[in-house]
Write a structure and sequence with these properties.
alpha/beta, binds zinc ion, binds N-[2-(1H-imidazol-4-yl)ethyl]acetamide, single chain, Aminopeptidase
Length: 335
Amino acid sequence: MKNSWTSIWATWLVVGLLYGCDFKKKETTVTEPDTQVATKEVSTAPTFNADSAYQYIAKQVSFGPRVPNSTAHRACGDYLIQKLKELGADVKVQEFEATSFDGKRLKLRNIIGSYNPKVANRIALASHWDTRPWADKDDTNPTTPPDGANDGASGVGVLLEIGRLLHTAQANPNVGVDIFFFDGEDYGDPDGGGENTWCLGSQHWAQNKHQANYGANFGILLDMVGAKNAKFAQEVYSKQFAPQTLNSVWKIANQLGYSDYFIYTENGPITDDHVFMMQGGVPTIDILDYDPTSPDGTFGKYHHRHSDNMSVIDRRTLKAVGQTVIQVIYSQLAV
Ligand code: AHN
Ligand code: ZN
């Protein structure tokens, strides 16, 4: 069992290394909506407030780009710790150092907020909170960092709003929720230095759990979940290693009326924090704005460019993602 799991991983690693992240020549397959998956009777979830999520994003952006070792990064990390506490979470901070592909020593923090910490059935939710040090796809100024409103801040903003709902909702979901803000995701080598140059925070966590014997039934990673007209295709590693979660989440999103966003098209594979969450034992899907059928290809036009600022953020996209995730929590998926 262990061996076949290892060889499956090795195969995907090779596929990932061959194709990289931004690969363009890929086959796309269309799968039909899965109507077989049984989700428990949909219980009433609280209403996700997209404007509140929007404000949490604007607040992060107001610190400036959250590039590791910068004062904005330090200040925003302090804010996130404080905010999660204020929203009633049990907060743990993992402070550590990692070496970047270009030889820098980075001071990083993973920030983890837990709700219903004693409950055995758990859901892991995650986003990265750091900003890429360079808008390296930008035509005019590729050496300075972007605002990272979508790439970084959007997922965190949605998860803070989820935390606010868990803190204030009348009905307590019958499940524990852990919110992971991973650091150092976006410091990767653009020139093929390897997949392990990305996702430094989740790699650290996979090797050093914040809690002995930590486990979750499944995980959901949010990455670039705020752009106008975002498309969330079904990412290959998610489909391979967390198929039930993927099917259930897409089904709920489509039931809620968000079929424009949660599309039944395959993409990837993408090396993102969910890969390392899976290595840490939590089968995790990636909700990621990446549409292989778009004429612009792959990531959105704002990706790693200065146009990734508040003007790309659309409350309707935040609502589609946030309402889906809170509904998943209150549906207590049997996956
Ligand atoms: C790579 O490009 C290797 N991974 C994409 C993950 C990512 C970057 N998410 C946001 N920025
Ligand atoms: Zn990025």
